[in-house]
Each structure stands twice: as structure tokens, then as C-alpha cells.
Amino acid sequence: MTIERIVLAFSGFFILLSLGLVHWFSSYWLWFTAFVSFNFFQSAFTGFFPLAIIFKKLGRQSGTAF
């Protein structure tokens, strides 16, 4: 599995998790959803995604995006 697919899977999981936390606990968890979404948005322009750097250092195979 390439870094791109791992990043998409982690991000999708964290967005769904934070929405569940909003439903069960507090609307303050929407800030976490906004943070993950902002990382996606800025990476579209810069190509920088913090999770991708972590997985590169762990030796995962990189695709074309990161």
C-alpha cells in the first residue's frame, strides 16, 4: 500500500471518528474535523502532508503525490 492510500485511509477514518465524537460528546470535536480537512486543502496546493512525512520515514513506498 502506498503512502497516498494510507493517508487517504487515515484521514477518512479520523474525519468519521471526529463526526462520531461530535454526535456522542461535544460539538467542539468539529475543530478536529476542520484540522484534518485543512491539512487536505493545503496539501493540494503545497504537496506537504505531515502524515506522509511520517510514513516516508517509516519506509513506506511513495507514489506520485507525496
Ends apart, CA distance between termini? 14 Å
Number of strands: 0
Tell me the count of domains: 1
**Category by helix and strand content:** mainly alpha
Write the layout of secondary structure elements.
Elements (H helix, E strand, L loop, with lengths): L2 H22 L5 H17 L3 H8 L9
Helix pairs in contact: 1-2, 1-3
Could you walk me through the main structural features you see in this protein, from its secondary elements to its overall organization?
There is one protein chain. Helix 1 packs across helix 3. The protein is elongated, with a radius of gyration of 13 Å. Helix content is 71%, strand content 0%. It contains three helices and no strands. The chain has one domain. The model has no long low-confidence stretch (mean pLDDT 88). It has 66 residues and is an all-alpha fold.
